[in-house]
């Protein structure tokens, strides 16, 4: 797999890069701690008044929060920086250097950047998840763990595809920096299971920005709420979205080279 | 010609440029109906280049040099006409082709900013899948040739512009491409750096029989490297032949930069190109240059005087404007 080989080399370079700024590790740790505290306080405030939210118990919501932090870490460490770099490259004209390389351009633009310290959130998310599972008192079935992993992977692919589609729009409209803020605002909504939102917002969070699949569905897998048809749907949607993203990316590239103009 | 490294026939590239007048109202109107204007950047260019040739590709800014290079490197899709490089159609971007060519752009870089160049070289190795032993041999030879052994392990951000450019070039050639497109590789560098890069390119061309297309604003680059030059202007080839012919034909004059003690009219010495108070730029025939300088020094209160070759851009611009 040449994609994995490339990813490994860039991961190595990225790690070297980030190790030069060790202070960022502490900053990230602080940021993660603050975010976690705010999340926990919010959660306990809600459960001060009630015992369940839209059918989710406190421990289950903690699990959702854990997945939200974990996925947020993956997005911030691996997906977002690459997309930002792509936008920058389109703006500066340095995308040319990608296109003259004898490797798949999409693979290359997807693995070039890593924010190593954002992976702190992946660890924090896993710890929160662990605590939630202990509170739930459930013994983890291997099957549930597998379903969780699969759902998480599907969610990540969907978020990646969503980002690539947005970023490919950079070929048409050059100013897209605001998309980051928009995305982060919407992703913040994923802290709660999408089921608690009104129907129109649920639709938005499921099919426009796939936050539901990135956070709620994996959490459901872990808390034994997930039925297999939802998981199958997640897989199919992930694949479709990925193919769509590739199509949009290629159209964007053709546009960049002026083939369709 | 079947064995040409690069052959281009009636190549054209037309850009669609959105057009609108200034002002808010025009901007709003253009939202509804976008008017596009067609701008021919390359308007039917033909030439062939044999394997191993170094060709200077010259022309004023906006002549279509970069657009042509980008089409040959597979970055832009030609609007019309045919381009073949090593038998490939560049815009298809076959990996087999990309592996054999490189593009260096003097004003853009691809090295990892915060890391030593060595790490970026390692990435190139991974991307081009260069075998380890071959990679080491090539890398070390290039480092030697560029004389950068002492700075390859310094972060790129701490290097000077010239040092960085040397690293860029090494990185871009590690896979030993047969075709080199060099777009202003020496832009903004001092004379020593330019000279080193020039001799590196010459050595690379010698050793690997590589074909080179070079654009530069520096006549010295072209004189040192290119037997042949292709001059384009307004998207068309205006001259294709030996460099000697170009210099004879178009650089038949010199520029005198004169600083006077007090302003004076120098128009009877030669053509005044620019006069800014006590600083005057004169254009005189090449053969006359030393005689006119002597007269100036004798007859005027001259504080400083230099004789310069006219900038290549000016020469070309002037010649083709007529």
TrEMBL record, chain A:
<feature type="transmembrane region" description="Helical">
    <location>
        <begin position="229"/>
        <end position="249"/>
    </location>
</feature>
<feature type="transmembrane region" description="Helical">
    <location>
        <begin position="195"/>
        <end position="217"/>
    </location>
</feature>
<feature type="transmembrane region" description="Helical">
    <location>
        <begin position="116"/>
        <end position="136"/>
    </location>
</feature>
<keyword id="KW-0472">Membrane</keyword>
<feature type="transmembrane region" description="Helical">
    <location>
        <begin position="142"/>
        <end position="174"/>
    </location>
</feature>
<keyword id="KW-1133">Transmembrane helix</keyword>
<dbReference type="InterPro" id="IPR010390">
    <property type="entry name" value="ABC-2_transporter-like"/>
</dbReference>
<feature type="transmembrane region" description="Helical">
    <location>
        <begin position="61"/>
        <end position="79"/>
    </location>
</feature>
<feature type="transmembrane region" description="Helical">
    <location>
        <begin position="25"/>
        <end position="49"/>
    </location>
</feature>
<dbReference type="Pfam" id="PF06182">
    <property type="entry name" value="ABC2_membrane_6"/>
</dbReference>
<keyword id="KW-0812">Transmembrane</keyword>
<protein>
    <submittedName>
        <fullName>ABC transporter permease</fullName>
    </submittedName>
</protein>
From TrEMBL, chain B:
<dbReference type="InterPro" id="IPR050763">
    <property type="entry name" value="ABC_transporter_ATP-binding"/>
</dbReference>
<keyword id="KW-0547">Nucleotide-binding</keyword>
<keyword id="KW-0067">ATP-binding</keyword>
<dbReference type="InterPro" id="IPR003439">
    <property type="entry name" value="ABC_transporter-like_ATP-bd"/>
</dbReference>
<dbReference type="Pfam" id="PF00005">
    <property type="entry name" value="ABC_tran"/>
</dbReference>
<keyword id="KW-0813">Transport</keyword>
<dbReference type="InterPro" id="IPR003593">
    <property type="entry name" value="AAA+_ATPase"/>
</dbReference>
<dbReference type="GO" id="GO:0016887">
    <property type="term" value="F:ATP hydrolysis activity"/>
</dbReference>
<dbReference type="InterPro" id="IPR027417">
    <property type="entry name" value="P-loop_NTPase"/>
</dbReference>
<dbReference type="GO" id="GO:0005524">
    <property type="term" value="F:ATP binding"/>
</dbReference>
<feature type="domain" description="ABC transporter">
    <location>
        <begin position="26"/>
        <end position="259"/>
    </location>
</feature>
<dbReference type="InterPro" id="IPR017871">
    <property type="entry name" value="ABC_transporter-like_CS"/>
</dbReference>
<protein>
    <submittedName>
        <fullName>ABC transporter</fullName>
    </submittedName>
</protein>
